[in-house]
Amino acid sequence: MNNDSDLQIAGDILEVPHLLQPPREHPATVSEFVGLARSIAADRSQWEHLVQYDATSRWYHRLRTGPGYEVWLLSWVPGQGSGLHDHGRSSGVLTVLEGALTERTERDTRALGAGSQRVFAPGYIHEVVNDSLEPAVSLHVYYPGLTEMPMHSAQCAPAVVTA
């Protein structure tokens, strides 16, 4: 009978570095893009000093690029919205950094507070609006990088009013 454990029989995986996958320099999966957005959100020093507010239009700033992806920082004063749109062939991750936004689709309306994230695939149609009385800041990761944002005229779900 062999008293060696399976680990001893197989060998120590740390001694066989060629079997370990090297860490990726850039995200490549949906979960890695979500993780990228979360790490940027958690490190306010990467974005807080860049935020500006514009009463005439939504303000945006490309924060970072990588192989095939872009990260955008947006600010929203009360009442500003994106209009109903999709992102062409791009998938994305929307993360609310400060304040609150409302996302409307044909099916429903979602309130998104600071820390909320939405992941979407190509062709996903939505509208994002700041329905609150305070400014909001959001982070958007697009893969591949955003090359188009077709606007739509269909109606979204009505805003939900709670008393």
Would you write up a description of this structure?
The protein is mostly beta strands and 163 residues long. It is built from two helices and eight strands. The strands form two sheets. Strands 1-2-8-3-6 form a five-stranded antiparallel beta sheet, with helices on one face. Strands 5-4-7 form a three-stranded antiparallel beta sheet, with no helix packed on it. A hairpin with a 2-residue loop joins strand 1 and strand 2 (69-76). The termini are far apart. 22% of the residues are buried. The model has no long low-confidence stretch (mean pLDDT 86).
Present the secondary structure layout.
Elements: H1 6-10, H2 30-42, E1 59-66, E2 69-76, E3 91-98, E4 100-104, E5 109-113, E6 117-120, E7 127-129, E8 136-143
Antiparallel strand pairs: 1-2, 2-8, 3-6, 3-8, 4-5, 4-7
Strand order of the largest sheet: 1-2-8-3-6
Report the major sheet: 5 strands, antiparallel
The coarse silhouette is globular
Ranges where pLDDT stays below 50 over 5 or more residues in a row are none
Strand content: 25-35%
Helix and strand composition category: mainly beta
Mean pLDDT: 86
